[in-house]
Design goal:
GO molecular function, one term (chains A, B): oxidoreductase activity
Family (chains A, B): Belongs to the FAD-dependent oxidoreductase 2 family. FRD/SDH subfamily.
Mean pLDDT of chain A: 90
CATH superfamily of the largest domain in chain A: FAD/NAD(P)-binding domain
Pfam families (chains A, B): FAD_binding_2
Number of helices of chain A: 16
InterPro entries (chains A, B): FAD-dep_OxRdtase_2_FAD-bd (IPR003953), FAD-oxidoreductase_2 (IPR050315), FAD/NAD-bd_sf (IPR036188), Flavocytochrome_c (IPR010960), Succ_DH/fumarate_Rdtase_cat_sf (IPR027477), TAT_signal (IPR006311)
Low-confidence stretches of chain A: 1-42
Oligomer: homodimer
Structural class of chain A: alpha+beta
Keywords (chains A, B): FAD, Flavoprotein, Membrane, Oxidoreductase, Transmembrane, Transmembrane helix
Distance between the termini of chain A: 34 Å
CATH class of the largest domain in chain A: Alpha Beta
Chain lengths: ~525, ~525
């Protein structure tokens, strides 16, 4: 692959119409549709297998590539398939932060941490819906996984960051502040070990053999996303096991709405457009059990005025607690600005329309890196105003109620106590009085699907018969249970590498069925 | 059946060890276990069918019997199977309250109501996770369903009740304050129409035919709950359709813990012991999609000092807001006493041990019917004390902190404003000062599973391919989506009768496949 492809960062790449478009397209052409579709009972063996590998991995993100490497190191022949025309899935557009308890950056900075503390943070964020053994596994092996990425894979990590919900600074970031800083070295390592990686190859069905064992999969090679009729059907035998690492379903509107009916096409997603979850459905059709699919995380920091993840979140998240968030319909605050992701997103959704966040020059100057602000203003997501009246006019906010609300907020800031919503105010928060003023519209986007396939601590997929589905492993966002109700920022990388490696080792170590 | 059997009310019948016991037993012998088990792909047709009906209904609660009657009225031959040695499931131990918007009792009492208001209440309780079309269906047809029960089925309803979370008095109760007041007339009607009902017959598997159509089921006849090896395998052909109305999984500890890991064997259930959900799993193994299985409702009003639903809840629920709830470990309050079911249960679970609720003679005398109090004291769940010190000694509460807390609470009551937890205090609440004092220990029990099979408004079960599973219908607690995050009290009956009837009509109206 070219360096250009390798360095591709898709943050901001996703068009605004993506989610709505997919809702219709994907469900017009699901894996099991067509006259030959006959439900899971019909998953008969093909007349012949077109290709044979020991282990077949579905997905080219952190989890899939980590699994492929470990399976290969067990002596297995390994194929990795990717339905999109580019590899890396959401991993390659991720911010490159890896939570690792007790990592060397923490030690250098004098930060006290432990797997127990990370576990505690994960369980608190997850409302204790996390499968405890899975959460513990990620916390306990997070630093080992980080070190594996650094020393064996050769990924460069350069700084220690803080993420909301963590008790301490725990997240180590790639040199290029992007998941590509890990995806690319993983891909290099995998291919250097002899793993075969093919793009535009979509799994349409798992093939079940005797006693419910997964023996391979049906794919479409030369698949041109999102044309479900494209490509050529083909059967790939997996002699040892299949590993599913195909990500979540944030971009699948119809499936989202089954699990959380509020998440209509009004909600776009920060995810890459292929995050549509057909692999989860295909696995369930083959007997795998799903769990906690209704815990779908929205980012409250995205703006309808730019596509994808965008540049606004880095402004919004820095000024919460320094500026105020108001409902443009009445000019009033409606929730504490420093509430967590879920609380704020729920509050905005309940209003039913975008809200605005406002900061003055003091807040912006103190909290936002000039380059970030410049970019956000350049794309037009953050706007600057010489007066609060002009700001109100721009967003159609009733002027006097808005000015009254700012005055009320300023009173709270002076007393360092929000009497209305108990927003956390920082010691250096100041009243919003210094022109120019900045504002940005906010409307949540779907960011992560916590639910997915049930797995055990060996990364085996559990079926509706409550037993492992033979020959089937899974890791990463396609699984459920690690994060419970809410995934903390930067734990996705830890989860994917820890469990991807386990899945790969166990899949590679399976006894061949033929 | 004998009148004795018919009048059986199983409220309070379930032994304390039931849940823990079931956890082990049920999952030692799941439907798909054994050397012939081969996952859903193996669901081949039997060599011969032992019996044939047009429609086979699984479950003898409100939903199953309503479905059987409507299917029979469509001209279908109908078999209803029940795995337990008694019919009625949870329906027969339910309190007999039926929420119906705009019912005649409301009109007589001058209560203004509408389906829109009932829908609003359901969506609010359900945190808008309800499938809107399903919730609307129940609200809009609730009164029609009630009238059908009264006029066509002949069930007697005699009083109008209020239930928490409803905007108005909306719940009409059976003459005997038990679900048996509806189950028995439904059963009489069904058998008089020629529906066959058999007990001790457990579905172990759905049988899938061509193109994924459900064509019948495998059962064990003469099944002796909970011995999974008991009974004789048998195949029943369903020429038109199968209707699943087998209830939820509150008593299935292993399955509960997959979806909400907090719900260990420490939590018993108010449900009948057979509420173990194998029918949900069997349906999913046959391609049906499940939804919102992690929304499991606990009643915060049950006591570890009596089994099942018990007598305590009727004391507890009447004195919240009049008396205080404390953590015996430190004598302090920990949550608002008038929080909703979920909030209170979550708060008690977070403490990790039973709490106590305390009321004085004023609160008890004003709020609790003497007969109810007498029964609760007779079984020992509510205890009486001449002093607060004696009460503290009984439950091992540190005395002085407890007395301080009661004094603090009394101060809030006097000001009619709880400064600690914002508990709703009623205009006639009075300080807890009048001996004798009463107390009861509280520990939540699993009460209802909101999640289940995905259905559409025609009661068709939806598969993982997002399309209806041909020949398969479902209604009642086995389904998910109607109630969203929280089911309101008394809407279970409305849901079961409305959707049971729809399932029966549509199943009975299917074209026979053979």
């Amino acid at each position: 692959m070219s360096d250009e492809t390798k360095d591709l960062s898709r943050r901001g790449f996703i068009g605004a119409g993506g989610a709505a478009l997919l809702g219709g397209m994907v469900f017009g052409a699901l894996p099991l549709e067509g006259k030959d579709a006959a439900g899971p009972a019909a998953g008969a063996l093909p007349k012949k297998w077109d290709e044979t590998y020991d282990v077949v991995v579905v997905g080219t993100g952190f989890a899939g590539l980590a699994a492929a490497i470990e399976a290969r190191l067990k002596g297995a022949s390994v194929l990795v398939i990717e339905k999109m025309p580019v590899y890396g899935g959401n991993s390659i557009i991720n911010g490159g932060d890896f939570a690792a308890a007790g990592n060397s950056f923490q030690k250098e900075a004098g930060v006290q941490d432990s797997p127990e503390l990370m576990l505690k943070d994960m369980l608190k964020a997850g409302s204790n819906l996390n499968h405890p053994a899975l959460a513990r596994l990620v916390a306990e092996r997070s630093n080992e996984a980080l070190e594996w990425c650094r020393t064996y894979i050769g990924a460069k990590f350069t700084r220690l960051n803080f993420h909301g919900g963590h008790s301490v600074k725990r997240s180590v970031q790639t040199y290029n502040q992007s998941g590509s800083g890990l995806v690319n070295p993983l891909l290099d390592k995998a291919t250097s070990l002899g793993v075969k990686v093919v793009l535009r190859t979509k799994m349409t069905r798992l093939v079940t053999g005797k006693e419910g064992r997964i023996v391979g999969l049906e794919v479409r090679t030369g698949y041109k996303w999102p044309d479900e009729a494209s490509g050529t059907p083909s059967f790939i035998k997996a002699r040892r096991a299949v590993v599913l690492a195909a990500g979540g379903f944030s971009q699948n509107v119809a499936l989202r709405q089954i699990h959380d009916p509020r998440l209509t096409p009004k909600f776009e997603s920060t995810n890459h457009p292929g995050a549509t979850g057909e692999a989860i459905l295909a696995a369930c059709s083959a007997g795998a059990m799903d769990v906690q699919m209704d815990w779908i995380q929205l980012g409250p920091w995205t703006s309808p005025d730019e596509p994808g993840f965008g540049h606004g979140p880095q402004v919004c998240e820095r000024i919460v607690g320094y500026g105020l968030m108001v409902d443009p319909a009445n000019g009033k605050r409606f929730f504490k600005e420093t509430g967590n992701r879920k609380e704020r997103a729920d509050a905005i959704i309940a209003l039913g329309h975008p809200v605005i966040i406002v900061g003055d020059s003091y807040a912006i100057g103190k909290q936002v890196v000039p380059k970030v602000l410049g970019k956000a203003m350049e794309v037009g997501v953050v706007k600057k105003f010489s007066t609060l009246e002009a700001l109100a006019a721009e967003y159609g906010v009733p002027v006097q109620p808005f000015l009254d609300q700012v005055a009320r907020w300023n009173g709270f800031v002076e007393k360092n106590k929000d009497a209305d919503f108990d927003c956390k105010l920082f010691p250096d928060s100041k009243p919003t009085v210094t022109a120019p003023f900045y504002a940005m519209r906010l409307w949540p986007r779907v960011h992560h699907t916590m639910g997915g396939l049930v797995v055990n601590a060996e990364a085996q997929v559990i079926g509706f018969d409550m037993k492992p589905v033979k020959g089937l492993y899974a890791a990463g966002e396609i699984t459920g249970g690690v994060h419970g109700a809410v995934r903390l920022g930067s734990v996705a990388m830890s989860d994917c590498v820890v469990n991807g490696r386990i899945a790969g080792m166990n899949a590679g170590g399976e006894k061949a069925w033929s």
